[in-house]
DNA sequence: ATCGCTGCAAATACTTTGCAATGGG
DNA sequence: CCCATTGCAAAGTATTTGCAGCGAT
């Protein structure tokens, strides 16, 4: 574990406590695992790293973290959702259509599109996401 | 049924035939239903309009149409995917976080982001999608 | 000591599959 | 007539739920 990762956990503990939620070993481990994986793990990925924690507990806590906006859901994976930390710098995703891998990339924030969408649809805008689809370097070869 | 809709079906029939696929009443009805709904139906929506067609047949054909790029999958819906016709003018989607409705809106094509993503990740780019999230006018009131 | 959380097992939801019967080409 | 397709039922996969017992506060 690195310092940056520990800092993230240390910020999250009081955040949970303030909301009357208990700091269980399972919650700490699930969060640590998501932080240390760095990518965009599925529930199954988390369970493989923490096989002694019940799948139901992982599902319940991922759902809890989503409702607290600690996690973001990436529903593009073939049926199974992937998750990432919510408090990250703004970025977009590129997805491999062959192997399903998701990579982050930076691009100037497209906030302008939110104004246009608001004018055209009268929605109250909250956020936006963008995904670029293609073939990753590995899958291009094969 | 309107002329534009019939034209779409009429284009699709030879497209299927050329590929050695059979023109079954079920396929015609499923396509007509998706065209006439205009929105972004789920498999369940299609089945409600065509209850006498087996769910399995609807799933199988939706999958077939996806592989033929007649349909596009919109995986944002809570677990269940929504579908739209693929041969539509370029547009983006705005999603209501409360009721799940998806509305199309126009915005100048963001092809530039594909070049940037390509340079940064070495992916071979195919396409991109963008979703804006917010509250629809109806859900803002409630 | 309380009551929120965990873990199990069962239930649910969505989708795919095996296979006999059907019907489009 | 042949074989792709349909429809059913069963299986598969992902997720949620009920509840007894545990353990964080």
Automatic annotation (TrEMBL), chains A, B:
Binding site for Zn(2+): 96, 99, 136, 139
Taxonomic classification: Bacteria, Bacillati, Bacillota, Bacilli, Bacillales
Binding site for Fe cation: 128
InterPro entries from the UniProt entry: FUR, Fur_C, WH-like_DNA-bd_sf, WH_DNA-bd_sf
GO-annotated biological processes: negative regulation of DNA-templated transcription; regulation of secondary metabolite biosynthetic process
Descriptive protein name: Transcriptional repressor
Pfam families for the chain: FUR
A GO MF term: zinc ion binding
